[in-house]
Design goal:
Blueprint: E1 7-8, H1 27-39, E2 46-50, H2 55-67, E3 71-75, H3 83-99, E4 106-110, H4 116-125, E5 137-142, H5 149-154, H6 156-176, E6 181-187, H7 194-197, E7 211-215, E8 220-224, H8 234-252, E9 257-263, E10 265-267, H9 286-294, E11 301-304, E12 316-317, E13 319-321, H10 322-337, E14 345-350, E15 356-357, H11 358-369, E16 375-378, E17 387-388, H12 393-399, H13 407-423
Parallel strand pairs: 2-3, 2-5, 3-4, 5-6, 6-9, 9-14, 10-13, 11-16, 12-17
Antiparallel strand pairs: 1-4, 7-8, 12-15
Helix pairs in contact: 1-10, 2-3, 2-10, 4-6, 6-8, 11-13
Organism: Aspergillus lucknowensis
Cofactor: NAD(+)
Domain NAD-dependent epimerase/dehydratase: 47-341
């Protein structure tokens, strides 16, 4: 594979913590607040964000800049657009201007992360000439996976080649450069059919070695068995395989710290209206599909199954505002770099802990936009499950992270983005 020339842009000044931190209410919050400041990079240190112009990647890139991190984004633009980088920079600079701080530095490299020559050149560029040599990249956040369930069923090798083989080559290259702080974009799909039988999912429902945990609801200690149950599609399997590989890497070399963040259903967009969900390829997720109806590009919204075992028959999901999800990556990075995580490999659910049905989401969108969204029931899709909701307690305890935004907030922010886009 060949790479495009690197596109470099920089914000001025050294990184600083750009928001006014809240007054800590507990000792844990004191520790987390201290660790956040301690983990911020020096002026020459960067966080590498692979796939950083996609929906979740761009919002995370913005939150990292707002929190004071210098960033390097690698993206091959296969499912994103170059101008998203400009939007991230603009939103960050507007934020820092209001906060009275200088915006950290940002760099864009237009390349495929599987292009090992391009990645090696980038990593070498960010290696010091000191003795001993060291990388100025202090951590990596990896988003560059294919993620469409239906597409993965049709093209499984495409998913295993990019999501699994690409990850192996990347980790080997990072290991050569002694970059061993890694945040992995995983998915609730690793829980497979358990999501249909469990009201809410905990991390111990899918583990890569046997472990014992305390079930607070039952008041007893339980044993979690290695593996997962009934993963329904190659996309989910690719995430499970990737987690297992990373767990094995950490077991072999304890110098690594890898946090795998299991996403539930990201929705909404940054409140500035400068960033949204705008994939090049067709997306089957609920919000972008609804946007196509709201903007008149398609006449109606397809509802995949109305006979699920749920209160209104439509599928139930844990819908999380993408800005909350993005901040979860910052919390994970701070915890990893401050040494607060008790294991070298650790998984975390990033969700709200509450489920909303597809019908409920559509009705909320209609209320916010004051527009009707025509819809029709169609057959269930292969690989779908009826319900998928997180137990996010581990992230709250160990990362000091929790969601702040509601379903309605996500709908308001989406409509704001669409309204701004129509004026541009």
């Amino acid at each position: 594979m060949s790479s495009s020339p690197a596109c470099n842009n920089s914000g001025a000044g050294s990184p600083q913590f750009c928001s006014d931190p809240p007054t800590p209410a507990t000792e844990l919050e004191d520790i987390i607040e201290h660790d956040l400041h301690e983990s911020l990079p020096s002026e020459d240190e960067y966080i590498l964000v692979i796939g950083g112009l996609g929906f979740i990647g761009s919002h995370t890139s913005l939150e990292l800049l707002k929190a004071g991190y210098n960033i390097i984004i690698v993206d091959n633009l296969s499912n994103s657009f170059r101008d998203v980088f400009d939007r991230v920079l603009l939103a960050a600079k507007l934020y820092c201007t209001r906060a009275g701080t200088q915006c950290p530095k940002a760099e864009l490299c237009c390349a495929d992360y599987r292009d090992l020559d391009a990645m090696s050149t980038l990593l070498t560029k960010h290696t010091t000439d000191t003795n001993p040599r060291r990388s100025t990249i202090s951590g990596v956040i990896h988003f560059a996976a294919y993620k469409e369930v239906a597409d993965s069923i049709k093209h499984p090798l495409k998913y295993y080649r990019n999501n699994v083989q690409g990850l192996i080559d990347l980790v080997a290259l990072l290991d050569e450069h002694n970059i061993k702080s890694f945040i992995f974009s995983s998915s609730a799909s690793v829980y497979g059919t358990l999501s249909g039988s469990s009201p809410r999912l905990r991390e111990e429902d899918c583990v890569h070695e046997q472990e014992t945990y305390f079930d607070a609801d039952a008041g007893i200690h339980l044993s979690a068995q290695q593996g997962s149950t009934g993963i329904t599609n190659p996309y989910g399997r690719s995430k499970f395989f990737a987690e297992a590989i990373l767990a094995d890497v950490c077991k072999a070399d304890p110098a690594w710290t890898v946090l795998a963040l299991r996403y539930f259903n990201p929705i909404g967009c940054d409140p500035s209206g400068l960033l949204g969900e705008d994939p090049r390829e067709s997306a089957s997720n609920l919000f972008p599909a609804a946007v196509k109806v709201l903007t008149g590009r398609v006449p109606e919204l397809s509802i995949y199954g109305t006979d699920w075992d749920t209160p209104d028959g439509t599928a139930v999901r844990d819908f999380i505002h993408v800005s909350d999800l993005a901040k979860g990556h910052g919390a994970a990075l701070a915890a990893a770099q401050a040494g607060r995580i008790r294991a070298t490999f650790r998984t975390f659910n990033l969700g709200t802990g509450s489920g909303h049905s597809v019908d409920e989401v559509i009705r909320t969108l209609e209320e916010v936009t004051r527009r009707r969204i025509p819809r029709r029931a169609v057959e269930r899709r292969d690989g779908d499950v009826g319900s998928c909701v997180a137990i996010p307690d581990r992230a709250g305890i160990e990362l000091g992270w929790k969601t702040e935004k509601s379903l309605r907030d996500a709908c308001v922010d989406l409509w704001n983005y669409l309204s701004i886009e129509r004026r541009l």
